Amino acid sequence: MITTSPSPALSVRGLVVKYGERTVLGGVDATVQPGEIRVILGGSGSGKSTFLKGVLGLTEVSGGTVTLLGKELRSLSERELILHLQRIGVLFQNGALFGSLTVGENIALPLREHRRLPEGAIRELVRLKLAQVE
Ligand SMILES: Nc1ncnc2c1ncn2[C@@H]1O[C@H](COP(=O)(O)OP(=O)(O)O)[C@@H](O)[C@H]1O
Ligand SMILES: [Mg+2]
Fold this sequence. Notes:
Layout: E1 10-19, E2 22-32, H1 48-56, E3 63-68, E4 71-72, H2 78-85, H3 103-114, H4 119-132
Antiparallel strand pairs: 1-2, 1-3, 3-4
Helix pairs in contact: 3-4
Adenosine-5'-diphosphate binds next to helix 1.
């Protein structure tokens, strides 16, 4: 029987990130399969945040390739990159929610900004997400 493994959700090869002369990531490889949960563990200042910023295109990378959900990020135009990144979510450690909005309004915000959905559908999605986390 021939089985084909699904393509990885994330594939990072030889990622190099430098701040000035200083090399913070000197060729990092990482693979995350669909449905897999990974933890990045390391001391303060070891480059965990830099790795994530490199993967998300939030910091300039000096070398390597990042393939996220089947697309190599450096092959995309700025517009394509923005659209592609809308497929993923990032929850920051601090300041994760807008304090001036309710939790429900926070959930609704990206749906209003990035999707053309009727208000009723947005309300229903918000209700479902809140029910999922009770
Ligand atoms: N924008 C930046 N400019 C210069 N140096 C930075 C910048 N961001 C992080 N660094 C340095 O890069 C190293 C890795 O930082 P970081 O990725 O934030 O580590 P971690 O998230 O693992 O604590 C640290 O020495 C930090 O001081
Ligand atoms: Mg960090």
